[in-house]
Design brief:
The complex is a heterodimer. Chain A has helices spanning 3-10, 12-48, 72-81, 128-132, 171-178, 205-209, 215-247, 249-257, 262-294, 305-326, 328-332, 335-341; strands at 53-58, 86-96, 102-110, 123-127, 140-141, 150-156, 160-161, 164-169, 185-189, 200-204. The radius of gyration of chain A is 29 Å and the shape is elongated. Chain A is an alpha+beta fold. In chain A, strand 7 (160-161) and strand 8 form a beta hairpin. Chain A starts with a helix and ends with a helix. Chain A has 12 helices and 10 strands. Chain B is α/β, with parallel strands linked by helices. Chain B has one domain: P-loop containing nucleotide triphosphate hydrolases (Rossmann fold, 3-Layer(aba) Sandwich). Chain B contains 6 helices and 10 strands, in the order βββαββαβαααβαβββ. In chain B, strands 6-7-8-3-9-10 form a 6-stranded mixed β-sheet. Chain B has a 4-stranded antiparallel β-sheet with strand order 2-1-4-5, with helices on one face. The relative contact order of chain B is 0.21. The mean pLDDT of chain B is 91. The chains are: A alpha+beta, B alpha/beta. The A-B interface holds A 1, 3, 6-7, 9-11, 250-251, 254-261, 334-336, 338-339, 342-344 and B 51, 56-57, 80-81, 83-85, 87, 89, 91-95, 97-100, 104, 107-109, 111-113, 142, 158, 170.
Chain lengths: 344, 224
């Protein structure tokens, strides 16, 4: 006989209260995690979509990529040895359309590479979000630092940088616009040798993300909220089960007196915790995934299945730890003490 | 036939630097199928003796032998197993599990005692016991909806459903009125005689002594 289930059935309200609290906390965690991930994509999809690898920037730039200038001779040496490597530059700027409407974009240019869009001089490839704003293939765009005009050649999905859509342009156009001859960064994808290059500092993808102004501050704040919520849910479990266990000390004592094993009482508590958490998580996953689809266009929200599963596992572990800590009382209960306390 | 013996059992409680000897060397034996009543004034040590005999707390000294086995040498787990399968308990209050029906209280006890009865036999046995305590019609009721007398009858049924060898009853009629007390004692007597269960009972109520085969009077931690 499953006494855990019998108690849930008889004390529905009590367990529904705990379940609804777990549901609300986990739902909030999923939503904030979705926002954190969405903002992260919005801030650095250009980098996050790259395969794992190593970025190089000038040591003198002190981890600020837009101050970095790669010596052309070093660049040539690296690119000639590593076929898949690319040199790239990123610079924030503006594009004006025919109606002189200005749009903020991140201009990106690179040497010939399969990792980035390769565009001819005078052409531009834009992030899809600009198509949704009304731009079309064939439209012409201008920039006050560029003498010519850019013709829109196409759109690409999920290419954002620093909360702005990416605009891939040709290297020569980029050099003219920003009056530089050097590129800012080198990128060598994994699977290749990562040489130590004198005068250059190397970064993994995640290390490079943290050099983007505002990225780590933004992510740190949101992830801190997510972890606070997870800890709060663990505390909720511990406190709720502690309160329930205190109320049931007499019952546990009587059950022990008639010969029920302490491990059976723990299993009863764990079963109840698992039941509540699984139902609460199932509901919050369903709702947060629905939110994934109905979130307003302007809201950077991205809740992946992997994040959902990871957070769900964390919730289950935290719930288990919280319930077990509160269950230490069960181990301490003396049958005699319970009998002397009177009716349970 | 002697099934349970207590030899020179002592119990001392130590509070701070004060040691108080509650039991000062008790000897007694229980005969199979008989009801032994422990009587005495409050503080005479009868409830302490009952709980030590039932394995709910250890003696400070002395020996307890049950069915040829020395219980004072047993581990906590071994004592738990004895309590689960060979002892039955009735307390002053019924102490039923609030979220189980009458029938489920009995199923739980059969499971705890690791009864080898199959489901069908379990149902039959439960039906039989419920008939004996006249509670068949309330088998799906929860404790909260039962009267005090009904609850105590269910507690008795729970104590004997697994056919224990010894029933320990600590003032089983304390929370009942005179009429219900007599009914409950009648029930305990009939069941223990029918099932050949040995009973050790603590009582304050002199009227209940009529149901006992032996009466042991305790005073100041000693058998008089």
């Amino acid at each position: 006989m499953n006494i855990a289930w019998k108690e849930i059935k008889k004390s529905k309200v009590r367990f529904m209260i705990l379940g609804s609290i777990v549901f609300l906390v986990s739902f909030l965690t999923f939503i904030i995690s979705g926002l954190a991930n969405g903002l992260s994509q919005d801030n650095a999809a250009l980098i996050k979509n790259l395969p794992d690898g190593q970025f190089y920037m000038n040591e003198d730039a002190e981890e600020t990529y837009n101050l970095s200038l790669i010596d052309p001779s070093i660049q040539e040496k690296v690119l000639s040895k590593q076929e898949q490597a690319a040199a790239l530059s990123i610079q924030m700027g503006f594009l004006n359309d025919d109606e002189d409407k200005q749009r903020s974009v991140a201009f990106v240019t690179s040497t010939d590479s399969t990792l980035f869009e390769n565009v001819k001089e005078g052409e531009i490839v834009l992030d899809r979000s600009l198509e949704e704003e009304g731009l079309k293939v064939g439209d012409t765009l201008t920039n006050n630092q560029f003498s010519g005009k850019f013709v829109v050649k196409g759109f690409v999905d999920q290419q954002k940088y620093s909360h702005a859509p990416v605009a891939f342009i040709n290297m020569e156009n980029y050099k003219e616009m920003h009056r530089v001859n050097e590129m800012q960064l080198l990128f060598i994808p994994a699977g290749n040798e990562f040489p130590a290059i004198k005068g250059l500092q190397s970064f993994s993808n995640s290390e490079f993300l943290n050099t983007i102004p505002s990225y780590s501050a933004e992510q740190l704040s949101l992830n801190m909220i997510v972890w606070f919520l997870i800890v709060i849910s663990g505390l909720l479990f511990a406190i709720f089960f502690y309160m329930m266990n205190v109320q049931k000390i007499g019952l546990y004592g009587i059950l022990k007196a008639i010969g029920v094993k302490t491990s059976t009482l723990f299993k009863m508590m764990w079963t109840q915790m698992l039941f509540i958490t699984v139902i609460a998580l199932a509901l919050s996953i369903a709702l947060s995934q629905s939110f994934n689809f109905i979130a307003p266009d302007g809201m950077p929200f991205s809740l992946t299945a992997v994040t959902t599963v990871q957070l769900s596992i964390v919730f289950l572990v935290i719930g288990f730890v919280g319930a077990t800590l509160s269950g230490i009382q069960i181990k301490k209960v003396e049958p005699l003490q319970a009998i002397q306390q009177g009716e349970v | 036939m002697t099934i349970f013996t207590i030899n020179d059992v002592r119990k001392t409680f130590i509070t701070g630097e004060v040691a108080e000897e509650i039991l000062k060397g008790i000897d007694l034996s229980l005969q199979q199928g008989e009801i032994t009543a422990l009587v005495g004034a409050s503080g005479s040590g009868k409830s302490t003796l009952l709980t030590i005999a039932a394995g709910l707390q250890p003696a400070s000294d002395g020996q307890i032998t049950f069915n040829g086995r020395n219980m004072t040498d047993m581990s906590q787990e071994q004592i738990r197993k004895v309590r689960a399968s060979e002892f039955g308990f009735v307390f002053q209050s019924a102490h039923l599990v609030p979220f189980l029906t009458v029938e489920e209280q009995l199923i739980l006890m059969l499971e705890v005692s690791q009864s080898k009865l199959k489901k069908g036999q379990q149902k039959k046995e439960i039906g039989h016991i419920l008939k004996l305590i006249d509670m068949e019609h309330r088998k799906n009721a929860y404790p909260a909806s039962l009267s005090g007398g009904e609850r105590q009858r269910v507690a008795i049924a729970r104590a004997i459903i697994h056919k224990p060898k010894i029933l320990f009853a600590d003032e089983p009629t304390a929370s009942l009125d005179s009429k219900r007390s007599k009914d409950v004692m009648e029930l305990i007597r009939n069941l223990t005689k029918t099932l050949n269960i040995t009973t050790l009972m603590v009582t304050h109520d002199e009227e209940m002594l009529a149901y006992a085969d032996h009466i042991i009077t305790m005073k100041d931690g000693l058998v008089e």
